[in-house]
Amino acid sequence: MINVSIFASGTGSNAAKIIQHFKYHPDIRISLIVSSKATAGVLNIAESHSIPAITLKRDAFLNTDEYVNLLREKDIKFIVLAGFLWKVPDNLIEAFRDHIINIHPALLPKFGGKGMYGMFVHEAVKKAGEPVTGITIHKVDEHYDHGDVIFQAECPVEETDTPESIAKKVQMLEHTWFPVIVEKYISGLEKLNTSKNN
Ligand code: GRF
After folding, report:
1. Residues in contact with ligand 1 (CB, 6 Å cut-off)
2. Which of 48, 83, 89, 96 has its CA 20 to 30 A from that of 30?
3. How far, in Å, from the CA of 9 to the mean position of ligand 1?
């Protein structure tokens, strides 16, 4: 089994879609939910699926190896960030190089970086008069919203769209694509590793 952890800070609608997608998967298991907030909705989702969950202690997360060690002990091979609002510290990125995936609700490199999350992104898209927006699924490196792009999908922005209606369209793209692309990415990398080891 390839164990995967989902990190999230909010409602967790993407986490829920990913959990559903892998529920009966023969090789990939969502085995740990990690939250940056004790009241995050994603923790209820974890509970309803009987998936173990933890809430991070900020100082230990940012300044020690406590969680790198914990993830290793639990044999976690991939981390999926699904609305995780803290910057991932360098020690964790180093330990999971190429094994951390994030989703961003816009077409990076546009509308990314610090402070560009949630409705701020869609408001900025509307204000800029962009004719299209979409989602970006990318590898996580040491810089915000910067790692190699794995996948993008677009949707049109009409003149009548509001930030709220843009958010709905983008969320639909996220729910459609994120679980599928996570599966493709993990399966692809695992195949590469198996052939390297043979
Ligand atoms: C999504 O829009 C995702 O792109 C972002 O945070 C949001 C999380 O939403 N990075 P949810 O908690 O999965 O509903």
Report:
1. 8, 10-15, 82-83, 103-105, 174
2. 89
3. 9
What is the Cα–Cα distance from 97 to 80, expressed in whole angstroms? 13
Report how far ligand 1's centroid is from the alpha carbon of 82 (Å). 6
| Tokens read off for 186 | 């993990």
Written as one letter, the residue type at 78 is F
CB 183 within 8 A of CB 28: yes
Kind and range of the H or E element at 173? Answer: helix 163-197
DSSP class of 99: -
What average pLDDT score do residues 54-74 get? 98
- pTM: predicted TM-score of the whole model, two decimal places: 0.94
User: Catalytic: 104?
Assistant: yes
Average pLDDT over residues 5-16: 97
Q: How far is the CA of 187 from the centre of ligand 1 (A)?
A: 23
Q: Which two tokens stand for residue 181?
A: 């692309």
